Amino acid sequence: MNVRMRFIAEYTEALLDGTAAAFVGAGASAAAGYPDWKQLLRDIGDELELRVDDVTDLAALAQWSIQKAGGSRSRVQQVIDREIGRQRPVPSSLQTLVRLPLRHYWTTNYDELIERALAEAGRPYRVRATQADLSTRHVPGAAVVYKMHGTVSDLSSVVISTDDYELYRRERGAFLPLLQAQLTSRTFLFVGMSLTDPNVRQVLGAIRHAFGTSPPQHFAIARAPKRGEDESEAAFQARERQHQYWAKDLMRYGLTVIEVAEYGEIDDLLAALGRSVARRRLWISGSWPWPDAEGERGADTVDRIARALGQTAAELGLTLVSGNGQLIGSSSVGAFLETLQQSGAWDLERRLIARPFPQPGPTLNVGRDQWTALRREMAGLSGTVVFIGGLKRDDSRLVEADGVFEEYELARAAGAYLLPIGATGGAAAEIAKRLHGSPLPSDGPRAQRPSDAMLEALADRDASPESIIDRAKGAVRHALNLGA
């Protein structure tokens, strides 16, 4: 297994187990257009009559500016506010990162890119930017952004000068044991780390201090150096060798490096992670009216198929997604929970994602927009969507459920694998017809539908319920293995 495949496999497990965390480095800020430390402090260097390119200790440069101002930090804070305070577009890599089921984000960056990415994704979050923040009560379900070196929205909190670093353990020391605890219990992904990031040494030092020569295993995505326009070949090769030594040296800290040539590869890696996580989630979509629908396969058979797939999801270690559709939802969820209980893996917070549709009542008006929002969320979460039945009553008539068709369209747009059990009739039968012969891929890691032969087998109305159940279980396993 190569490094990238190992990373996808192991970090996916950590994400699904709720034991993953991320550390966002300076590279993410650079990708958004924010200045690096040298660019940030260039004006400060000019004021001190120093060339910033000649200064190796940039924290000292900030310290000298503060000393020249009689101990006032206002000039340094003014520069940070001017350069970091402006809002720049959130990089696509961060947009993808916050869509993963991560709850813990660490950074030494001052900007608010992580917070803005979480807000744009509709995820609740809390920021811990000072030592006092660490004692505030956790909000269940909210992501936490740990800003070890402060934040631009509170300039008094930023760590930038020699004094700030030397007095870090006194002023902000509570961050370090918390980081060390999470480095012990979680698998970290370091994104945007770079050889030139002056804050990396402090984080790596915390790992080394806590774990010595046997650190836990983590991952780091690092971009290889690019030759500058005016850079000589010899200078570039020297810088490239330095980067290679640095990447190998990270192994001492338990960091396995996944090297990329371009920033776009980071997006691809994180998107692959998202697909890998989604592939482990199964949405059973569909509905069946009660009392039984005359002329169709029958509620008893549909119930058996839904229960069998709920049980299969539990046995395969999948997370079940459900909108609690009539009969289909209760049958699949019930069998899923029974199987989990019998196996002793009673982990509902991690294994069940339920989004029951609110129903109109005497004091509640429910719009279709609310239902569409729930369906869109489930489509984005799910790697495979199974369609069973899909009928509803319209006065005295039985008609195909338009909600199931909407779920099909949203799941298709989200790139999910679409698996209709056409033999159950209703919308599922029509979806099977639409997919048969369609241009959507039916093989490989980006497959979105079964082969035509499999669709036909799942739509066989003459097959026994037992045969349909066996075929449906096999189709779910096949979908799960496509990305392996």
TrEMBL record:
NAD(+) hydrolase ThsA Sir2/TIR-associating SLOG domain segment(s): 265-471
Q: What InterPro entries does the record tag this protein with?
A: DHS-like_NAD/FAD-binding_dom, ThsA_STALD
Which Pfam families does the protein's record reference?
SIR2_2, STALD
Organism listed in the record: Lysobacter yangpyeongensis
Source taxon at top rank:
Bacteria
Tell me what this protein is called.
SIR2 family protein
